[in-house]
Here is the input.
Amino acid sequence: MKNNILKFGFIAFFTVVLVGCNSEETTDQLSIDEIDSEEATLTATIDDGSEVLSDLTLQGFEDEESLAKSNTNRFLPDCATVTIELTDTTKNVTIDFGAEGCEVRSGHIVKGKILMSYELDIDAMSLLINYSLEDFFIDDVQFSGSRTITRLKANENGNPQYTMSLDFTVTFLDGTQASRTGSKTREWIEGAFNGNWGDNVFLINGNWQTNFANGNIHSTTISTPLRREASCRFLVSGVIELVRTTYSGSLNYGDGSCDNTATFTNSEGEEREIML
Here is the structure.
């Protein structure tokens, strides 16, 4: 899914669009060119890390349970150690990236462990996957917390689907913290269960909220499903609606072409092409 670890597209918005959040702001509508670069960087890192977590967890599960297991274009790096523990009713899977870390396909360095647990009945139409993070870092940024993923074997379109709850805290190298809550759904529309992670295509829906220590809140809602293709580094289509404490707008990722541009439109109807 676009190199499996995209900066979930919001890097573009938060790098180009986000406005200053200092106490001197007094206007209701700010210019499209005003930037809060510090908060933009933090938000982009959280977006990116959230996608790293999603990709690693789903790939770890599918690597273990797929009927068409294959090492072709896998997402998990060879340096990751997978340990399995079985009970009478559950399967516990630990993905250990080590204290020194492993480089994943996008170039990120991942450290620590992802601990998953789910019932042995993987053929069930709906399966709940619980996972937590242990000393887990992405490029020296720590992610703490837990999630649940509801894996639907086939949705109304006949496709596998994963609904993920978001509930984690991010701690940056300087001690700055932020938290994120919400949910995200991935529908696996192409390449499912063929043993090759590289040809997968997902449609993503969802909404979430990011809370910063200074009281600022960033809300994101996907209004048109985002399309992620493993063959492209960037999101190729879809629209997201973004609202922060004093600013709002939408970001359109285009018509399906694999390129590094998107169009941002603010609440006044002003448009700007931005680079992803």
Remarks:
- The chain is about 15% helix and 45% strand.
